[in-house]
Specification:
elongated, six-stranded antiparallel sheet, 225 residues, 30% strand
Length: 225
Amino acid sequence: MTRKRPGSLLVERANGMQDEIALHEPVTTLGRSASCTIAVDLPNVSRLHAVIELQHDRYILIDKGSVNGTLVNGNRLTQEYQLNTGDVISLGSPAATLVFSDPEATLIMPIDTSPPPLLINAHARMVMVYGTIVPLSPLEYSLLLYLANHAGQVCTREVCFLAVWNQPYDHATCEDALNACVTKLRRNLRATAHASGQEPPLMTTVHRIGFRLDAPVVWDADLRS
């Protein structure tokens, strides 16, 4: 199928005016920079915030590592997204909103955009389970971050304690603190997942050795501390 009519974006400007911009190019750039195809000069918008690519006759929205994220219909993107007529795109905040329209229906099935089991934004120190923010203490976050950076690997008690408390592990004096941190982390992950009707990311205790995170991790904007 050869596209005869391009899709378009309806852009609402700060002065209340609206512009309809046709997506003629294979790649349309969105961001604060004046060099972008569609420039949105707002502080929450990154210089190159996102792009829309025409792939096999469908329009694909891709976040380009923006600090404040790209949302479609209120849901933050964690992967590529196939745009559909009526989709509302927000760049960093509701103030930067664009509405997509496609005069030609595509026969390709939409890409699954369901939220991942575990998403970490190390820049914002934010953890999400199935799209919901998990309330974590600084100690719990540090432990999860270390396990996530070594997902699928057994992390000994010694290295976990050093990563969280920045001091050597002593079995007699440190075991209770580490166990309590693990218990609270598991409880918060489980409560958040169950609230969404899902099973929590799996943290496995390896007897007398340490812990292992047995869950896929999505790194938001690929930012790691």
